[in-house]
Amino acid sequence: MYNSKITGLGYYVPDNVVTNDDLSKIMDTNDAWIQERTGIKERRHVIKGEDTTTSMGVKAAKIAIERAGIDKDDIDFIVFATLSPDYYFPGPGVLVQRDLGIKTVGALDVRNQCSGFVYAISVADQYIKTGMYKNILVIGSELHSYGLDMTTRGRAVSVIFGDGAGAAILSRAESQDEGILSTHLHSEGQHAEELSLIAPGMGKRWVSDIIADNDPNDESYFPYMNGQFVFKNAVVRFSEVIMEGLGKNGLQPNDIDLLVPHQANLRISQFIQNKFGLKDDQVFNNIMSYGNTTAASIPIALTEAWESGKVNSGDLVVLAAFGSGFTWGSVIIRW
Asked: Pick the catalytic residue: 3, 114, 144, 184?
């Protein structure tokens, strides 16, 4: 059995900054209302035609590959997590393989929304642990802005989400004492519709019927979130899955050097921080700058934390996420 470790990180966000004041010009909202409920000050939206989910993932991947000190042809496998693929099919994994000019390796798409990167890391970790692959490119990338209801009707959801991508290279570790110690994954599908985007989908309506109806009041094309219900479930599941990971490795909350939670809502992160008695420098948050970038949020935050010197050799780093599905998970890393 091998261990896997993160050897390279990178992220990319569009240059276009959208502030809360910008949103107040197109919907009935304001900076104080958004910050009080989410902690978000601004987010990034792509400029139409300049970026896609795949192109942002490619830009983040190039940085991660360079920092890992490997060539693109050293990559054995690709795992791409997103809820906003360029196409209904094929998924963006193969598009990354094409656009980076990587040899004909396998490419896997993960559709686990906010916990997508944690799931993707878990998959890559298992492939390396079994000895099947040596270097795996893992990407989380999201383009939300094209699919948001940017009116007062949709403000409860639309003010939260932003665009961006993050990437990591997982490689074989030389020591069993470093790298990913364990991953923990869960789901609870009975609450699937509480955080969802119902259409377009093949489960309820023919595509031809959707086109024929062309109903401007059909809200099923926009994301729906039962905010209070999601919040209540998130704080419980975050706590459980973090403790599960720590317990698996004989650790306690005070052993954590850095917690990087999915950037869903600053109030959720603060709740978890207080519950575990962690100091401000033990939790990394950047939702105030980027909003919720779903599968991209953890790799963007982890990269920023590493770039700012908050992640060092020997540190215990915990990644945790909760989101649509419901799905949730954690990753315990000895850096």
From this structure: 114
Query: 48-97: per-residue pLDDT in tens?
Result: 899 999 999 999 999 999 999 999 999 999 999 999 999 989 999 999 99
Given a contact cutoff of 8 angstroms between Cβ atoms, the answer to whether 293 and 84 are in contact is no
pLDDT in tens, 127-184: 999 999 999 999 999 999 998 989 999 899 999 999 999 999 999 998 888 999 999 9
The C-alpha atoms of residue 223 and residue 245 are separated, in whole angstroms, by 31
- The catalytically annotated residue of 45, 144, 184, 262 is 262
Mean pLDDT of 295-321: 98
Catalytic status, residue 286: no
Which pair of structure tokens corresponds to residue 109? 């798409």
CA distance 62 to 75: 12
Could you tell me the domains of the chain?
3-173 (3.40.47.10), 179-334 (3.40.47.10)
CA 180, 181, 187 angle in degrees (round to 5)?
A: 90
**Pair 195, 324: CB distance under 8 Å:** yes
What is the model's pTM?
Answer: 0.93
Could you give the dihedral angle defined by the CA atoms of residues 282, 302, 331 and 61, in that order, rounded to the nearest 10 degrees?
Answer: -170
